[in-house]
Amino acid sequence: MIKAFKNIVMSGLLVLACSGTVFADGNAFTPLNFDDVSYNPSSSSRSIASTSTNTTKTITPASTATSQEVTGGNDMQGAILKLDNAQIEVRNELLNYRAKYNDVDQQYKLIKAERKALNKKVKDIEKKIKELDKIKEKTRQQMI
User: Fold this and answer.
1) What is the mean pLDDT of residues 13-29?
2) Is residue 37 a contact partner of residue 28, using CB atoms and an 8 Å limit?
3) Beta partners for 33?
4) I want to staple 51 with a disulfide (CB 3.0 to 4.6 A). Which of 44, 58, 73, 139 is the partner?
5) Smallest Cα–Cα separation from 58: which of 49, 68, 71?
6) Distance between CA 35 and CA 20 in Å, rounded?
7) How far is the C-alpha of 133 from the C-alpha of 144, rounded, in Å?
8) What pTM value is reported for the model?
9) For residues 76 and 32, is the Cβ–Cβ distance under 8 A?
């Protein structure tokens, strides 16, 4: 009973948290348009109404809008180029670190293999020493 209630409450909270994106009113962000004008869906209908009533007035604002868009587009292109350059620099840095990592990794593997071989030799020598000690003890016991 309590588990079912917890599941219902958790599901409700999840739906409530995700519902904000569902009920969002439009999207003011477009990747190539960063005008300082606030987003207002009713402004586009007003410009359409004004174009049908008087064409000379709409040509001037339209040309101004296109010049603003071109300027904004150039600024955006410059920003995109800067981001591309930054991305290239970061990728080059990543390649450098990967190369260093691979070098260190190869050294690590080489040292690890060398350590393993030396450890095996040490154990073999310790085993020989123990055998020699046993032989020495047997020889002493036979002498007595």
Assistant:
1) 66
2) no
3) 30
4) 58
5) 49
6) 25
7) 17
8) 0.39
9) yes
